[in-house]
Amino acid sequence: MTHSLKITVHEASHLVDVERFGKNDPYVRVGLNLKEKFEKTKTVKNAGKDAAWNQTLDLQSFDPQQQPELYVEVIDEETTVDEPIAFTTIPLHQVLSAQGHAIRGRFDLFTVDGKQKGEILLTIAVVAPGQTEGHHPSTEIRGQVQLDTAHQNRIKGLKRKESAADGATLAVAAGLAFGAKALLDQHKGEKKLDHEAQEAAKAANREI
Length: 208
Known about the structure:
The protein is an alpha+beta fold. It has a single domain (about 5-165), classed as C2 domain (Immunoglobulin-like). About 30% of the residues lie in helices and about 35% in strands. Strands 4-1-8-7-9 form a 5-stranded mixed β-sheet. A 4-stranded antiparallel β-sheet has the order 3-2-5-6.
């Protein structure tokens, strides 16, 4: 039987605001492998630079020997492609060596370009086979993080997809605007021709 990892996502603060209009709509997702599906929290609408979730995520089949890091991402929910706000990689040896194999810690976050900005408060607990709950430490610590190159490359890829989607949306909007202007110009031209025809008809009638 394997262990599981329970991560309670409490809150994040001092996030970068990636919205051009309005405020961040962030959610958090966590994973033990960059190539596998992440578990995610609910989205907090209009949260801006600070958000609270207080939601526990459960990562099954945790193997401490094969999965030494926890990958954490804060994402802004969009109507097209979601945009990364921040990320961090947490070495799990600090959890495994803690009393009760659990820690409650504040962890630094990094922006897409790798600059430290913001932090996230998590409780991380290893749950042994046959148990349903992990230890809940009351003391908060400053957690250890690392800037993982592979994780950053994943975040940069997500950012490129979001930027491409934004560009496509703007292009469509520009095309629609251009089309609308062309129709308006055509309508104005037709009205002008119609007006000229009416004036010509009136002139002809006066001559008769």
